[in-house]
From TrEMBL:
<dbReference type="InterPro" id="IPR002781">
    <property type="entry name" value="TM_pro_TauE-like"/>
</dbReference>
<comment type="similarity">
    <text>Belongs to the 4-toluene sulfonate uptake permease (TSUP) (TC 2.A.102) family.</text>
</comment>
<feature type="transmembrane region" description="Helical">
    <location>
        <begin position="230"/>
        <end position="247"/>
    </location>
</feature>
<feature type="transmembrane region" description="Helical">
    <location>
        <begin position="202"/>
        <end position="223"/>
    </location>
</feature>
<feature type="transmembrane region" description="Helical">
    <location>
        <begin position="74"/>
        <end position="93"/>
    </location>
</feature>
<dbReference type="InterPro" id="IPR052017">
    <property type="entry name" value="TSUP"/>
</dbReference>
<keyword id="KW-0813">Transport</keyword>
<feature type="transmembrane region" description="Helical">
    <location>
        <begin position="171"/>
        <end position="196"/>
    </location>
</feature>
<keyword id="KW-1133">Transmembrane helix</keyword>
<keyword id="KW-0812">Transmembrane</keyword>
<feature type="transmembrane region" description="Helical">
    <location>
        <begin position="99"/>
        <end position="117"/>
    </location>
</feature>
<keyword id="KW-1003">Cell membrane</keyword>
<protein>
    <recommendedName>
        <fullName>Probable membrane transporter protein</fullName>
    </recommendedName>
</protein>
<keyword id="KW-0472">Membrane</keyword>
<feature type="transmembrane region" description="Helical">
    <location>
        <begin position="46"/>
        <end position="65"/>
    </location>
</feature>
<dbReference type="Pfam" id="PF01925">
    <property type="entry name" value="TauE"/>
</dbReference>
Amino acid sequence: MPELLPWAWVVLGLAALTIGLAKTAIPGGGILPVALFAAVLPARTSTAALLLLLIVGDMFALIAYRRHAHWPTLLRLAPAVVAGLVAGFAFLALGDDSIVRRAIGVILLAMIAVTLWRRWRQRKTDAAAAEHGIVVASTYGALAGFTTMVANAAGPVMSMYFLAMRTPVQVFLGTSAWFFAIVNLVKVPFLAGIGLFDGQVLLMDAVLVPFVVVGALVGVRVARRMKQQVFDWIVITLTIVGAVYLLL
């Protein structure tokens, strides 16, 4: 078991709870656990440990929303996502902890910028949806593949894409659930191949899994009552703090 201070376990427990909530109630909220894990653990270790917990959360998201996926959208994104995953794996395999740590910080800040830009755009007049051809899908897909491999931080990218496509809420949640469930499983052999799933990571995740389950169950129950705007701004604020911490 990793030798962590009590405050570090509290932070990881909070992050695990947030994973469950993000998967079942707060789309895009999964960026906070990325910052919290990377602030407490070595960068490469945080990516591996977080991935296994995200897969647990994916199971609950599929149970809740599996019937609402739009498969043509997933198939359109697939080639570019694979290319992004390979590029991200090469970066993760070759970069040392210091480089990966700073890269996660930069990615998080970029994802926050994407999220804020998306919100600003939503407040503009309801213009016609942008053209969503193969070039647009490839751009979003490649960026999502790279950011999810390096930092498990593709949530804002995909949220922006689905919103740009004017995807209905249930289809949004169902397509996201299948997208991340498939991509996260694909990432496992990549990270295992470079030795990131050691005994300490597995033991730590075994301790944190119950927090993910609790968060997911709470998310399912309160999804329709939660004031998402307030929660989103809390997530954004804490993520900015975490990203700046990683860059210092």
